[in-house]
Amino acid sequence: MLFRIVERKWWYFLASGILIVPGVIFLLLGGLKPGIEFLGGTLLDVRFTTVPTTTAVHEVMSSIGHDEAVVQGAEGDRILIRTRDMKPDEIAKAQRALEARFPGQLREAPASSAVSPSFSGELVGNAVRSIVFASILIVLLIAFAFRQFGWAAFRYGIAAIVALLHDAFLVLGLFAILGYFLNVEVDTLFVTAVLTIIGFSVHDTIVVFDRIRENLKLNPGEALNPVINFSVMQTLVRSIITSFTVLLTLLALFLFGGYSIRNFALALLVGIVSGTYSSIFNAAQVVSLWQEIEDRLRGRPRAAPAPA
Amino acid sequence: MTGIGPWLVALIAVVAFWVDVPHHRFDFPFGCPGVCLRLGDRYYQQEIKTHLGLDLQGGTQLILRLRTEDLPPGSNTPLDTLNTQARKVIDNRINSLGVSEPVIQAFGPDKILIELPGVADIEQAQTIATRQAFLEFKVPDDANPGQFRSLEPPLTGAHLKPTFVTFQGQAQANPVINFEFTSPDDQRWIDLSKQYTRKQVEILLDGKRISAPEIREVFNSGKGVIEGGFTTQSAKELSLLLNSGALPVPLEVIQSTRVEPTLGADSVQKSLVAGAVGLLLVAAFMIGYYRLPGVLAVIALLYYTGLTYAVFRLIPVTLTLAGIAGFILSIGMAVDANVLTFERLKEELRSGKSLRNAVEEGRRRAFPSIAYSNAATILSAGILFYFGTGTVKGFALTLGLGVGVSFFTAVIVTQMLLHGAIEIPALRKRGLYGVEETSLEVRRATRPRPVGA
Predict the structure, then answer these.
(1) Most buried in the list A34, A212, B35, B444, measured by CB within 10 Å?
(2) Domain carrying residue B90
(3) pTM for the whole thing?
């Protein structure tokens, strides 16, 4: 079997667009909600006679609209709850909710203090700068791998970065939508999830490209599109199996991991699936499109269709 | 793969296993726990244990108060500026201690909350967090002989290059701190040596004299040393404090408590179980799908996990959830390197090659993909580590180390196992490699192949 993977590229680009554009719109609408690590907020210090589990306390906080609460046990039967900035009436509400759930267990009214962000925008700024710098080096690395094709080598590197942006924006967009409608916030774990996805995306793309490189070398004179079709098909099984094994681990984490890990696992799940999709259906197609545009500009005949 | 290779791989396995075994002591040759090395005047001691981050293990929480009453009268820096400056300095200091990913937050206007993973060296952490480390150089006061006065403006440790410790005196036994002023204080330091040659100057730390050396000659650079009767430990600590800058205001610890993991103990437990289940599924799948090579891959992955964990314990790397994400990604890439090799192996077998040729050809042709994709990941991890802070740095470290180790296991260990297996007659059936016994019909199945492939 041989899919016409290159010929149908506009359909795949369209599918990616349908998935990414709404997310980008919500990103522009400010849907990505920074979490308390970036904004700071309120720290409640509650003393109990019998300490409940942190999960139970988190449930109480969720029920009064503070799903972002980070609950941490401390020495001396204390529970520390970090939330968004809470007004005095909200703190009183939280106290009532805790008393209702754990009757007679609170030793005194919770002590509250304002806390500053524990992570500055510096963290995100540094990460973004690093990604830009790393992307440039990746373009150079891939160009080096394809150096025998002259200047055309750079289009492979750039296509890999396009695939990387595809995956990063898909996940950022998803969390912008989740943030807009469900107030899901992003934390430092989300930052690392995005970095992981980017790493995986580049890795996946390079494997496909390396196969294209090998087949181009084995079949000199062959048009680009059939070689891409063939190479993607050859690496298809590997792409799917590798993603599948990573997904197995992540799915286990998503289903059985604790509440604080769920969003992290979700971001990774979506990102890895997207990374596999973009490496099969987008990355090489960008190279093909580039070639076709160049051919048209120079008035060369279009590449022959792939053998069926 | 003959000769020294297999022995090296086996030796690494033994060392890794030894490092992985928890709670052991190794008292030879220096009588200290863990690993001790002495290289010249550098002494390296490393206790072998797993370092877990605040999110997974919990740690100690310190609440510090800004002692604004100790500020010199007339200073009118706003409280929130002082708080921000103090947090920046504490962050620098704790990071240079090597403590990974602390939490440092303003806690109300005049307090700072710090959380450090683990409980070891809390006293040291308290000193580091509260010592102001305000260095000042005073010159003889001509009006009051025997007294010293501040220069105008005071010459302080505000413009120093990073200081370092060396040893002086008999048997190189006295630690001293080497400093060097940067512009504009380097010129002031030279001028001071001209003006006060053959006279004593006073060096104060937090208002207390630590030494009063005599200036023996006119300096020609901004360099100098502080001798203060230090121990190696106290000299290193002071050097660290000077390098991280002085606190704008003295601090005091008003509370120190043990805190549980921020992710919640039950949540961490669940995630560990989930991770284990996930890895078992991966192993089952690899064996089911690839048969014998799958079994070899699982052995190589166990080797990989054991070796990486040993590296994490030795360096040491503080494991947080973000770090574990990096680790999981690197396991994924280790699996991938095996998948790439085995898919190639199958292809080569189907094209009618003999087992031995197929294994060799599979390795040769899978290698560029593995090398380039791993190089890209290590490159990115290196950049993230270099420029990153906190969580991002921890993630980059585990990812980079993990992929580095995975490259070794996937390329060397898996290949060695494959080469070993095909030497055993019972393991030479093509069926064991997930390929049909006869190769003719398979050739048809792999059509179409581009001409000449």
Answers:
(1) A212
(2) 59-132+248-259
(3) 0.79
